[in-house]
Design a protein that fits this description.
The complex is a heterotrimer. By secondary structure, chain B is mainly alpha-helical. Chain B has 25 helices and 3 strands. Chain B is 70% helix and 2% strand. The chains are: A alpha/beta, B mainly alpha, C mainly alpha. Chains in contact: A-B, A-C, B-C.
């Protein structure tokens, strides 16, 4: 019985991932595309995705934008407040490389320098389909992490 | 032997009051022992009366100097203890005992404590005497002693801002109350040529001519001032705030109960007028206005003790409303609520005092986050707050429930929509009470800890004992209220409704019958509809189930993590990514949306509570005039 | 023998039906249907109906972090008290023809137990020490004050009406029995305003849009729940789902009390169906077409419009209609 419940808990980790979105100096393009995923056309909610208001509720932290020096500390602090198991998904080219902002005095990216990124969706901006796929993969990783937690 | 106890209990306290000043003005040990011994013996004497009076149904009478009635006229001062007197005497003695114990720890840093304990014992003795006496002029003397002791104690910490002002307001309004009562008593004496309450009752025999009506109005107004019903409530808030907390507790626990007792004694027994629907309606309206004004004023307060003071006013409104219904159920509910109010309001004042001793302030804007530093105080406060808001299973719920039942039954039986409005008011006031205690909870105990209170610690044992005792009693009275009802409330309420024995015991067998006084027989009110034990058992079952499911069923559930390291960002409070800052949400301003909606009402209330003594006096006079006029217009 | 039987019966009632298990299962079902229907209303596919169950299980599997500022006992105790008080309410709401326990003045107990569940949320949020939670609890409290006035009036109107010509009753049993004899209150014209008012109170009580000012996730980060994570949050979410069932169930008991098929199995199914219909009617639809109110507008709305409707019923009932 207990084993069954454990298995159910592991499986539900992939079925109800709640998102928390952090913008680290993005141009707002990726943010709009992320929200587009929740619209009737793409409807990410059918996989159980939901935007959460607080990092304490989140499973997947979605990061967009090159990490600016203003947002770096706040990003790290907020990521620390997310309970395990958690996944970090970066959207767009900026968190990967800095994109057009690379070399700016105020950009301290890429994101990998500060945190382990589980899924990275490239593109400037990535299409909602791509974001959806990235999020879906992140959800699968959540189950793995959840399994690793109780072993 | 037992018939000497009531008078001894009072005399002992008066005697000790002077002994404290003579022997204990220099030595704290002597002072505390005298106070403790006197209050404890007095409490024990009152407790010893429970068996004969409450359970065996006796009435104890005692003629001072053995001056028993001559020729059918009472000439001496008589003490007479029936269940109603004893009920209030128990509240009074329990309150002053707990307050005395609390004072030892709470007041130790003050000076001139000899004066303090003298006044404290005088106050205790006078209120106890007021409840036990059978002579209406003796009652007035006790009121005077009570008022002046209260005034002096209000000003005791006269180095604090506002203490003298509060005492002055109390003095003026309190003296008005005393003089109204005295005038009423004088009218009665002129009419009946006696001051003994039992004899007054049989001579008046429910007669309501012009002069007795005037006397009734004035005495009710006088006791209304003592119990701070609106519009006489104005000095209460200042006095409760300025007085030391042990005294605030005494004020709300026994001084305003003395007013309620006086009203019940006068209206039910001396005048036997509570079966008149006009008087019921007038008093119920005053009660309803009192509870509403009290709670709405409390919602906007910035000061812990001042907020509690307004709640005292509001809860007394409940008591007056229920008692004035004139039904056995209403009396039971009202008396029960009076008792519960003594418990939970005393408890809340003690927690306020604990906060004051440890932090030096009771300003809601300057406190916060004390729950981790003072856990016992926090739990006691939550129990008190739950009880005053009427949450089950605390005592406030049981009594409020009985009162709602009584009010709505009354509304339906009399087919008076006014009473339905009163029930709605009572229920909504209950939620508002909860709201203002949520405000205190957030502003004082939860929320963020201010940096300056980093090294606050829990209070001393002498202060903890009364708090924990009262918190336990709050739960006990809520759960075993049927026991309380059987032992205390039923005898007390039937004593208020039936005065034949009261008269006979004092004036001799058959006196009442000759005067044509008859009992109103009431069946004991039994409450089978709220069975807290069943609920607690069900609560326990579900609690166990939830606990087992969470612990065993979800064996691999996520761990519960806690850390006290001040660097780990994981345990920070979420500030949108910012570093943890001190940004307390001002507790006193928690309900700004509500206040905005009620702007007009609060402007009027602000204008009425101007702080000017002449305004308050005017309000008191107008209030008295309304009571007297309403009696003359509607009682005919 | 009878005592043992009574004990077993009470344990069964409190844990399985109509207590904890039934309330939780049916509540999660209602929450799932609510999410599915609102998705369909917005032309989305929407999550599966089991989605709230997945949410709950996932939250049970996550870490529960007690923030440094929080008082551990209060912070973790609040969700449990919330859940238990809600499970207790359900014991006193008749499931059409079936009542587990009944007293003679249940209405006031139910009123205060619903308040307890609100207080648990408030105290829990308050103990977390977050300023967002501070604003959240203030809004939650004002919301409670707002709907309390109409709620009380509705209960009094029902109590008077069910008491017959010259009486009143706070007993759930008596209210159901009266309706069985004289027809449901929903079809008594003098009670219709009260029924409408109750339908408007339900979303505020549950905390649904447009009355979710307390948990506005976009402005104050879910208010009182902000610092909750893992199992504690899961219990609160379960509590919200249970509250949906309780409020719709209370409506069924108060206004459709006479309905019963006589068979307990059918009754349960019918009860759940009625609750689903009510959920869709008064929560999902309203949620789909409205935006969040401001707190002062919410207060005004309840103390004027909704309270007015309830007052109309109360006065009509008082006139013997």
């Amino acid at each position: 019985m207990a084993g069954k419940i454990t298995q159910l808990m592991d499986e539900s980790a992939a079925k109800s991932p709640w998102l928390y979105h952090i913008n680290t100096g993005s141009c707002n393009g990726c943010d709009i595309e992320l929200v587009a995923c929740l619209t009737p056309r793409y409807d990410a909610e059918r996989f159980g995705f939901k935007l959460a208001g607080s990092p304490r509720h989140a499973d997947i932290v979605v990061v967009s934008g090159p990490v600016t020096s203003q947002s770096k500390e706040r990003l790290i602090r907020t990521l620390a407040q997310v309970p395990e198991p958690k996944c970090v998904v970066s959207i767009g080219s900026c968190p990967r490389s800095g994109n057009v902002f690379k070399g700016s005095y105020s950009v301290e990216g890429p994101l990998e320098k500060y945190v382990h990124v589980d899924v990275s969706v490239a593109g400037c901006t990535p299409k909602p389909e791509a974001i959806m796929e990235g999020l879906y993969r992140a959800a699968q990783i959540l189950t793995e992490k959840r399994k690793a937690m109780h072993k | 032997m037992i018939q000497h106890f009531p008078v001894l209990a009072v005399m002992l306290l008066f005697l000790a009051a002077f002994q404290v000043e003579i022997f204990g003005s220099k030595n704290a040990q002597v002072r505390n022992s005298i106070t403790f011994a006197a209050t404890t013996i007095s409490l024990l004497m009152i407790l010893a009366l429970i068996k004969p009076v409450m359970i065996d149904g006796q009435i104890i009478s005692y003629w001072m100097g053995n001056w028993s009635p001559v020729g059918g006229y009472a000439i001496g001062i008589g003490y007479e203890v029936d269940a109603l007197s004893l009920f209030f005497a128990l509240l009074v003695s329990a309150t002053f005992w707990l307050s005395a114990v609390y004072s030892f720890g709470y007041m130790e840093k003050d000076h001139h404590l000899g004066h303090y304990y003298t006044l404290f014992l005088m106050l205790s003795a006078s209120v106890l005497g007021l409840t036990l006496t059978g002579d209406i002029f003796n009652m007035f003397v006790m009121i005077e002693v009570m008022t002046f002791a209260s005034v002096a104690l209000t000003a005791f910490r006269n180095n604090n801002e506002g203490a003298l002002e509060a005492a002055f307001k109390y003095l003026v309004i309190g003296s008005m109350g005393s003089s109204f009562t005295l005038t009423g008593i004088a009218l009665l004496y002129g009419k009946c040529h006696t001051l003994n309450m039992a004899q007054l009752s049989s001579i008046l025999s429910g007669d309501l001519s012009g002069s007795t009506m005037m006397a009734l109005g004035l005495i009710i107004a006088g006791f209304g001032i003592k119990s701070y019903i609106v519009p006489f409530h104005t000095p209460a808030a200042d006095a409760y705030t300025a007085a030391p907390t042990s005294i605030s507790m005494v004020f709300s626990g026994m001084v305003n109960k003395a007013g309620v007792y006086g009203m019940i004694r006068v209206a039910y027994i001396i005048f036997r007028a509570m079966d008149k629907s006009a008087l019921q309606t007038i008093l119920v309206l005053f009660g309803a206005v009192t509870m509403f004004v009290g709670v709405t004023m409390a919602l906007t307060q910035h000061e812990f003790k001042r907020l509690l003071a307004f709640h005292s006013i509001s809860q007394i409104g409940y008591v007056i409303t229920a008692v004035s219904l004139g039904s056995a159920l209403g009396l039971t509910g009202g008396l029960f609520h009076a008792m519960n109010h003594t418990l939970f309001k005393g408890l809340l004042f003690l927690t306020a005092g604990a906060v004051l001793t440890k932090t030096g302030t009771t300003n809601l804007d300057k406190l916060g986050g004390l729950s981790k530093k003072m856990p016992v105080t926090t739990v006691c406060f939550l129990v008190g707050a739950g009880a005053i808001s009427g949450l089950p299973p605390f005592n406030g719920f049981a009594s409020k429930w009985i009162m709602y039942q009584a009010m709505y039954t009354k509304a339906v039986e009399s087919h008076n929509f006014l009473y339905a409005v009163v029930v709605i008011t009572a229920l909504v006031v209950s939620v508002m009470t909860l709201a203002s205690f949520i405000k205190v909870t957030q502003a004082v105990f939860f929320g963020q800890l201010r940096p300056e209170y980093e090294d606050v610690t829990e209070v001393s044992m002498s202060m903890k004992i009364p708090m924990v005792t009262m918190a336990v009693l709050c739960v006990f009275c809520g759960v075993f209220y049927n026991l309380i009802n059987r032992v205390f409330l039923y005898p007390a309420s039937s004593a208020a409704l039936n005065c034949v024995n009261y008269i006979d015991r004092m004036m001799g067998e058959g006196y009442a019958e000759n005067a044509g006084v008859a009992n109103i027989e009431t069946a004991p009110v039994e409450f089978s509809y709220w069975n807290p034990i069943v609920w607690l058992v069900l609560f326990g079952i579900i609690f166990c189930a939830v606990a087992i499911v969470i612990l065993k069923g979800f064996a691999d559930r996520g761990p519960i993590l806690e850390s006290n390291s001040s660097t780990d960002a994981k345990y920070d409070t979420f500030f949108s990514g910012e570093q943890e800052l001190f940004s307390q949400v001002g507790g006193s301003d928690l309900f700004w949306g509500f206040k905005k909606n009620w702007g007009g009402y609060y402007r009027i209330m602000g204008a009425l509570h101007s702080g000017i003594v002449t305004d308050y006096t005017t309000m008191a006079v107008i209030g008295t005039a309304i009571i007297v006029l309403a009696l003359f217009v509607f009682m005919r | 023998m009878t005592i043992i039987f009574t004990i077993i019966k009470s344990i069964f009632y409190s844990l399985v039906f109509p207590g904890l298990l039934f309330t939780a299962a049916a509540g999660l079902l209602l929450a799932g249907i609510d999410r599915k229907v609102i998705a369909r209303m917005q032309k989305r596919i929407g999550p599966p109906i089991r989605q709230p169950l997945f949410d709950f299980l996932k939250l049970m599997g996550k870490e529960t972090i007690v923030p440094r500022r929080a008082n551990r006992l209060v912070f973790l105790g609040a969700p449990v008290v919330n859940l238990i008080s809600l499970a207790l309410i359900m014991l006193f709401i008749p499931v059409l023809g079936f009542t587990a326990f009944s007293g003679s003045a249940d209405l006031i107990v139910i009123l205060y137990l619903i308040t307890i569940s609100g207080v648990a949320l408030i105290v829990g949020g308050s103990s977390s020490g977050s300023p967002y939670a501070g604003i959240g609890i203030s809004r939650e409290m004002v919301t409670m004050m707002s709907y309390e006035l109409p709620f009380v009036m509705i209960l009094l109107a029902v109590a008077k009406k069910a008491g017959g010509a010259a009486g009143m009753t706070f007993s759930m049993d008596a209210i159901t029995a009266f309706q069985r004899a004289n027809g449901s209150f929903l079809f008594t014209w003098s009670m219709i305003p009260a029924a409408i008012a109750f339908l408007l109170v339900i979303p505020a009580e549950v905390g649904m849009q447009p009355f979710d000012v307390a948990e506005a996730e976009t402005e104050i980060c879910e208010g009182p729940l902000i610092e909750y994570s893992g199992a504690a949050l899961g219990l609160f979410k379960l509590g919200t789902a249970m509250k949906m069932l309780i409020m719709t169930g209370l409506f069924t008991a108060l206004f459709l009390g006479g309905v019963s098929t006589g068979m307990i199995g059918l009754d349960i199914i019918l009860f759940v169906i009625i609750c689903i219909v009510l959920t869709v009617l008064c929560m999902t639809t309203v949620h789909a077409v409205t935006a969040r109110l401001k707190i002062e507008h919410l207060f005004k709305f309840f103390w004027t419009f909704v309270a007015g409707l309830a007052l109309v019923s109360l006065v009509l009932v008082w006139c013997g209609l």
